[in-house]
């Protein structure tokens, strides 16, 4: 500091803050770690949740020529969840608080919850690892990727009991194996913080793929309800802080650092994250909507959907044909950059730094560092994300379109009509076609539903037990969501 004593006041001020930053470098490193750990699952999970939007025409076959059966829309939130979620979360939190106080030592509770979350975490970490492997190979070894992405069909039949047919990829098996090793290491190595965070990432990543707010206004209502809940539980009751600091289970991200370090609840990642994921899917919806309008000079038409490249890795903002789509609302919800609000060019929009969620997180850390007291992160994250989303829609004239957008399947139009016509046709065929007969011990019997499925899979009608593993034929449909690699 003596070096700046004889200099101007500006240099003295710079020197003062430079010295302060140097003294607080460990704290700064911890906060950067926290920011990265929160943004990673949101970014990856949002891109992995991309699927065929209502404004695009669903393809009938994939790249391998295998027919695709469109999966039904994911279960989304309802407006009533704005009340149900906070009440249910409060009951669970209160129950855990009183159990901890009753036990005095939460070791037994930690062990029980640890086994429970370990079982669930195997799937989450397996999914995250499998998709990460897909991304890494698409960047480094694209020639190997085609072998790991080959599909296999597992069939299991036990007469009159079960008829199972499941399709999977080799990368999924590798991911599941690594997930099992991760969970085993977590329990055998005294639950180190870095394994806790990997499992927590898996939870967030998997949740962002299967959980949808359904509409922007429903998601806004739910976040508003949880906004009030978080403030109440942190500032006006001891419940949140007691449970968060007493439980040693992967329901939070843990960061070693000065003093006791820091932590971030998974709700502070997942809840804003589902709105950010919805914003990215809305961007994809608008991309195909305008593409269809441009194709026929103002008349609406649905262009063919093209799956996103590499899931969420090799070309984050590009489709398989090399064309990019503008991530206006995704970028706004992450960043709220002025160039988006002012109507920047497509090149500027896709290159904008990411801030709405980030600004909220920075505000949380600043207040936390000043007050020296735990902060309800949703107090800052919810306004940051919602103001960025609705503010961008207002400035760009998309408020009506954003309000009407829904993922409950009602916007699919022609696709829904085709699906209903297909189901009606199938029902009529089943009514007009006599039941298949099978031969067992020389007697002709009518086939049960299980046996019909067995016959369709090419299994001998007289087999009692059948287990097989094969690659799917191109003339049979695979049930999987469009947009998933």
Description:
With about 475 residues, this protein is mainly alpha-helical. It has one domain. It is about 60% helix and about 10% strand. The chain is built from 18 helices and 9 strands. The protein has helices at about 10-25, 25-50, 80-105, 105-140, 140-150, 170-190, 195-210, 215-235, 240-245, 265-295, 330-335, 340, 345-350, 355-370, 380-395, 400-405, 415-430, 450-455; strands at about 70, 150-160, 160-170, 250-255, 260-265, 435-440, 445, 465-470, 480. The strands form 4 sheets. It has a 3-stranded antiparallel β-sheet with strand order 3-2-8. The protein has a two-stranded parallel sheet with strand order 1-9. The protein has a two-stranded antiparallel sheet with strand order 4-5. A hairpin with a 2-residue loop joins strand 6 (about 435-440) and strand 7. The relative contact order is 0.16. The model is unreliable at about 310-320, about 335-355, about 415-425, about 430-445, about 450-455, about 460-465 and about 475-485 (pLDDT under 50).
Overall shape: it is: globular
- Main pleated sheet: 3 strands, antiparallel
Supply the number of structural domains.
Answer: 1
Give the helix tally. 18
Mean pLDDT across residues? 76
Please describe the topology of this protein.
Layout: H1 9-23, H2 25-48, E1 68-70, H3 81-103, H4 107-140, H5 142-148, E2 151-158, E3 162-169, H6 170-188, H7 193-210, H8 216-235, H9 239-246, E4 252-255, E5 262-265, H10 267-295, H11 328-334, H12 338-341, H13 346-350, H14 356-371, H15 378-396, H16 399-404, H17 414-432, E6 437-440, E7 443-446, H18 449-456, E8 465-470, E9 478-480
Parallel strand pairs: 1-9
Antiparallel strand pairs: 2-3, 2-8, 4-5, 6-7
Helix pairs in contact: 2-7, 2-10, 3-8, 3-9, 4-5, 4-6, 4-7, 6-7, 7-10, 8-10, 8-15, 10-11, 10-15, 11-14, 11-15, 14-15
GO cellular component, one term: cytoplasmic side of endoplasmic reticulum membrane
Protein name: Signal peptide peptidase-domain-containing protein
Membrane topology: Multi-pass membrane protein
């Amino acid at each position: 500091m003596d070096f700046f004593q004889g200099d101007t006041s500006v240099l003295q001020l710079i020197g003062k803050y430079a010295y302060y930053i140097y003294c607080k470098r460990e704290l700064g490193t911890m906060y950067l770690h926290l920011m990265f750990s929160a943004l990673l699952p949101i970014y990856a999970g949002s891109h992995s949740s991309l699927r065929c939007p209502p404004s695009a025409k669903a393809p009938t076959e994939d790249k391998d020529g295998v027919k695709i059966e469109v999966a039904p829309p994911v279960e989304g939130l309802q407006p009533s969840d704005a009340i149900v979620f906070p009440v249910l979360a409060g009951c669970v939190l209160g129950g855990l608080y009183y159990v901890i106080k009753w036990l005095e030592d939460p070791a037994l509770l930690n062990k029980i919850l640890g086994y429970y979350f370990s079982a669930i975490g195997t799937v989450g970490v397996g999914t995250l690892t499998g998709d990460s492997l897909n991304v890494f190979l698409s960047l480094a070894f694209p020639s190997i990727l085609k072998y790991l992405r080959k599909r296999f069909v597992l069939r299991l039949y036990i007469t009159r009991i079960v008829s199972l047919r499941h399709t999977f990829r080799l990368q999924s098996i590798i991911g599941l194996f690594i997930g099992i090793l991760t969970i085993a290491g977590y329990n055998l190595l005294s639950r180190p913080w870095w394994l806790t965070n990997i499992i927590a990432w898996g939870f967030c990543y998997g949740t962002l793929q299967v959980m949808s707010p359904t509409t922007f206004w429903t998601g806004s209502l739910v976040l508003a309800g949880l906004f009030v809940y978080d403030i109440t539980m942190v500032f006006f009751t001891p419940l949140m802080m007691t449970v968060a600091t007493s439980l040693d289970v992967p329901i939070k991200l843990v960061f070693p650092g000065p003093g006791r370090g820091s932590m971030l609840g998974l709700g502070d990642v997942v809840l804003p994250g589902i709105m950010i994921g919805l914003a990215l899917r809305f961007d994809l919806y608008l991309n195909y909507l305008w593409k269809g309008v441009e194709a026929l000079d103002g008349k609406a038409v649905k262009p063919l959907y093209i799956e996103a490249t590499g899931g969420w890795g090799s070309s984050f903002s590009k489709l398989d044909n090399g064309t990019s789509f503008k991530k206006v609302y995704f970028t706004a919800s992450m960043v709220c950059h002025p160039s988006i609000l002012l109507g920047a060019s497509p090149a500027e929009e896709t290159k904008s730094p990411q801030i709405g969620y980030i600004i909220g997180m920075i505000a949380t850390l600043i207040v936390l560092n000043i007050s020296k007291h735990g902060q309800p992160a949703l107090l800052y994250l919810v306004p940051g994300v919602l103001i960025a989303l609705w503010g961008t829609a207002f400035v760009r004239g998309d408020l009506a379109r954003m309000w009407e957008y829904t993922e409950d399947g009602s916007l699919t139009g022609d696709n829904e009509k085709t699906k209903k016509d297909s189901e009606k046709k199938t029902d009529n065929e089943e009514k007009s076609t006599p039941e298949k007969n099978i031969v067992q011990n020389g007697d002709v019997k009518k086939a049960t539903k299980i046996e019909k499925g067995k016959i369709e899979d090419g299994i001998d009608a007289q087999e009692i037990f059948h287990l097989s593993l094969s690659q799917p034929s191109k003339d049979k449909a695979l049930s999987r969501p469009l947009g998933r690699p």
